[in-house]
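Input structure tokens:
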């Protein structure tokens, strides 16, 4: 099913068929357009955020045209508080032509099957969204020290103790 986008505010809704949540009604005003699509999905351009659970830090970025296509996303700031997205001039023009809108930042989450404790976020390719004009872009930060597999959960004490120690042979001070 392909959801139709229309301009306007108010009570207009889109009915989205999803593989995870069944049929979902969302206000047209909550749809987000990614003009260039997402990496690996250039033709998927219209999405909506759906809550995972009321108390969850995770959201689903659900495609409006492909029921089976949804990505888990979260804010990167609880994971890396000092995280900074480097936007090019082109990114700024695409996302905030007026130059004064706050931008929302999301990171794509990867959850290995059977091992959710090993989940990671992609800090090299964040999703940046202008909530006022409902436009988003996946920004690729090529010259960045961030990882595309940043662990979400800090290692437990037992994992740290079980990790091999870095020992070197040499004179001690």
């Amino acid at each position: 099913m392909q959801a139709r986008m229309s301009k306007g505010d108010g009570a207009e809704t889109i009915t989205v068929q999803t593989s995870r949540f069944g049929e979902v009604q969302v206000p047209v005003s909550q749809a987000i357009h990614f003009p260039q699509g997402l990496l690996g999905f250039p033709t998927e351009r219209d999405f909506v955020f759906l809550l995972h659970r009321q108390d969850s830090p995770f959201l689903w970025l659900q495609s409006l045209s492909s029921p089976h296509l949804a990505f888990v996303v979260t804010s990167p700031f609880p994971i890396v508080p000092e995280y900074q997205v480097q936007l090019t001039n082109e990114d700024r023009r695409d996302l905030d032509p007026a130059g004064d809108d706050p931008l929302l930042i999301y990171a794509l989450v990867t959850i290995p099957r059977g091992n959710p404790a090993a989940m990671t976020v992609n800090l090299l390719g964040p999703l940046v969204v202008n909530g006022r004009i409902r436009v988003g872009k996946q920004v690729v930060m090529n010259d960045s020290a961030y990882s595309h597999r940043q662990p979400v959960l800090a290692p437990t004490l037992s994992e740290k103790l079980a990790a091999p120690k870095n020992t070197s042979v040499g004179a001690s001070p």
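The longest helix spans residues 89-95. The two ends are 69 Å apart (CA to CA).
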